[in-house]
């Protein structure tokens, strides 16, 4: 029987509002790890982040320590995990980091290659969420392949088709009609290819009784689309997780023309909720969606228009995609946490902690 591992984990990203993809990953990982009997958690927060009482309870009441720029020195814990692209630890305790993608090194975002490279060298293992990300990490940073491990993510347990009454209530509250909108979830930074998203949706809205529904608020650069689409364009602001399954389930399709994804959690969530997906065949998305999505060229709005028209004209195809997505969504966060725990134990054993 394995001895319990004392794990120190940087929980900062999970406490940010609104949460980013890395925050959702960190949050779900923590919630699953506290259900395990072989891991003793210790949380570390980078100020000014704060942990609410409700969230601390969700994390099993684990003890919390604070730091400013980075944690330093030897820890009482046997292992440190930096789950959000940064290690933020300098000391002799063995460490692992999750590097979600190398998008910044490919021109999407600030390239901190030297800083990231130094941190990766200090890690006993590097976790990535997809084979695509693993290939990128190996190519950009030249690490020993044995140190880079793929652990795929998963939708949270609540992401499943909601009961009909709940679906109707949430859609009515949001002023939406089932099957009456195209959906995009997440940020609209350049990597997410918002130009093709808006252009493709605009073409469909001209010929179909649909709306384009987006999370977040409009940016200054989107003013032209706000003016052009008018009431057919809806910005929902920040959406809590308890509403997202209904938004997915009620959509005609999730439109996701991203140029590059380390995992693509909105695609996985949409599939789990029975929402047809039209996305790019780039990055990790084919790994996540497989044959449960329609694919379109992210460089051509016309390609997305063609696939969306095909989907909207064929209810049987839409139904088949919904079924494929539901069949594909059999992985949960207990599975993800089990793979993390196995890696933690391997690193601890190889570092002589046992």
Please tell me the overall pLDDT.
Answer: 94
What is the number of strand segments?
Answer: 15
CATH architecture classification name of the largest domain? 3-Layer(aba) Sandwich
Domains counted in the coordinates: how many?
2
The largest beta-sheet arranges its strands as 3-2-1-5-7-8-9
Give me the Rg, rounded. Answer: 21 Å
Question: CATH fold name of the largest domain, please?
Answer: Rossmann fold
Along the chain, the helix and strand elements come as EHEHEEEEEHEHEHEHEHEHEHEHEHHH
Describe this protein's structure.
This protein has 354 residues and is an alpha/beta fold. It has 2 domains: 5-154 and 332-350, Glycogen Phosphorylase B (Rossmann fold); 164-328, Glycogen Phosphorylase B (Rossmann fold, 3-Layer(aba) Sandwich), CATH 3.40.50. It has helices at residues 21-33, 53-58, 113-121, 131-141, 164-174, 194-207, 223-229, 244-250, 265-272, 285-289, 301-313, 315-328, 333-350; strands at residues 5-10, 39-46, 64-67, 71-72, 79-82, 89-90, 95-98, 125-128, 148-150, 181-184, 211-214, 233-235, 253-256, 277-279, 294-295. α7 (223-229) links the parallel β11 and β12. 45% of the residues are buried. The model has no long low-confidence stretch (mean pLDDT 94).
